[in-house]
Amino acid sequence: MHYSDKFFILEIPFSDRASVLNVTTCVGALIALKLNPEDFVNEFKNLQAIALRLEIKTGINNCILINDFYNSDVNSLQIALNHLHQQSRSHKKTVVLSDIEHSGQTNEHLYQEIAKLLSHYEIQQLIGIGKNISQHEKLFTQEKLFFDSTADFIKDLHSKNHQFINSTILLKGARSFEFEKISALLQQKSHDTVLEINLNHLTNNINYYRGLLKSKTQIMCMVKAMGYGSGSSEIAQTLQHLGINYLAVAYADEGVELRNDNVILPVMVMSPEPDSLEDIINYNLEPEIYSFKLLELFNHQLDKSGVMDPYPIHLKIDTGMKRLGFEEHDIEKLGDELLKSPLAHVKSVFSHLAGTDNPDLDEFTNEQIKLFEIACAKLESKLGYSFLKHICNSGGVSRFKNAHYDMVRLGIGMYGVGVNKGEQNKLQNVGSLKTRISQIKTVYKGQTVGYNRNGKIKKDTTIAIIPIGYADGFKRELGNGNFSVSINNVLCKTVGNVCMDMCMIDITGINCKEGDEVIVFENFEQIKSMSETLHTIPYEVLTGISSRVKRVYLQE
Length: 556
Ligand SMILES: *Cc1c(COP(=O)(O)O)cnc(C)c1O
Fold this sequence. Notes:
Blueprint: E1 2-3, E2 6-7, H1 17-32, H2 37-40, E3 54-58, E4 64-68, H3 74-87, E5 92-98, H4 107-120, E6 125-129, H5 131-135, E7 143-147, H6 150-159, E8 167-172, H7 180-186, E9 194-198, H8 199-210, E10 218-222, H9 224-228, H10 232-241, E11 246-249, H11 252-260, E12 267-269, H12 277-282, E13 286-289, H13 292-304, E14 311-316, H14 331-340, E15 344-350, H15 362-383, E16 388-390, H16 394-399, E17 407-410, H17 421-424, E18 431-436, E19 439-443, E20 448-449, E21 455-456, E22 461-466, E23 484-487, E24 490-495, E25 503-506, E26 517-521, H18 524-533, H19 538-543, E27 550-555
Bound molecules: pyridoxal-5'-phosphate (PLP).
């Protein structure tokens, strides 16, 4: 910002256009009120994202649906269009819009303004529903169709005159237009079993961790393994919107998928395989270099791909994890090799801590931190330029504030799993695994339930069959009463062996019917309980929900 012969730097934690415009207006007002910029420029970075009432669902034919049926006015339309813009990837952008009632402007004015917004956001197709919007069809320049009522449009959908394919569709209608009926038709008929991902809770968790960092410390978010099971592109789009600095994936193909879905943030690839180095360069991904062999291969590929400008790489130092990385005694030679081939430019140097969540290991952790600092100092003096340094994972962000350096790598924490009780209270659960009762039956004393007749019935019992099995990540060890799911807040134990696609639960005395919702987990305690039953950790529970389970995204 340039004002009254001075330059000011004003940082905000968002990148979307509406937020930038809002901030500009706000600064204008502050200056008009004669406030001194020095007093307020530093406050803007503390702004927090507010929740929207939008719902994102997977549609038919590879479409994405964004539902916003709550209110309908020009402002909320603009916010929704901005969201559509963020989520649309390489898709065609379609808006289904009802009449806007009680706008306080003349219809001519109103629809002119809307036409301008639609062309600003490059909307390629408009479906207008209602008599008023239909009367102004001439104002709209994109591909368009108009209907007098929602019922007329639904009739048209049924007749299959046209189809939605590979589109991101914003459904934005006033309450009375009942757009939920359109949504139900366009939504993919998913299995009853879904993993519901709450993007507002993800935002809350990111804000919590941001609060622990100095304002200059950057955040790299780990979206490896399908975003710890939550979905990669959907999570990445949200993180991009939140102004996160870096993403990291395990393999190149995960990064390629992000690029194909229009994610433009820098992406570090942690396990670059020799065969994937060409793709890494083609898709502008940044490799983690952990060995001399890999450095040589990558330098060779830079040559082969005809790269002319310095290309960012990230060096992994092993400070005690004994996983990938250069050892302390490699540093000298590493510096020499890097000087020989300056095309590979060291963007960052990092290491990974083995026990940030365990206070018993703090001495070892501090030792790792010390080794890391020594290695960085050596490399820096050798190379003659500086680079980003990072070592903290989620647990490190909370417990090793002296080691945040230039960047931290956030993983499990943003998905809602904290390092201790105090932190757990500040985090919100992101993934909820839900299903529905397929069938209810009574089984009598002496009968058995499931394979191998393992579910022996000792007194008359009502059971429900639910469509989730070990192929969905509901592991066999959870069977035979070892785990309980909940229906209307009442816990119901499993009965007999878990099958591949379903399992049986005891619902004796519980008020419920076929089609009712069953919660497998929706909070940290339930994830923890499942992981304890399975003798594992929440990481494995979350990443173990198989890709057959549909992910549904909520943004309220
Ligand atoms: C997965 C991973 C992280 C994130 O760890 P969390 O414990 O989930 O925060 C950080 N750094 C590296 C190198 C990783 O592989």
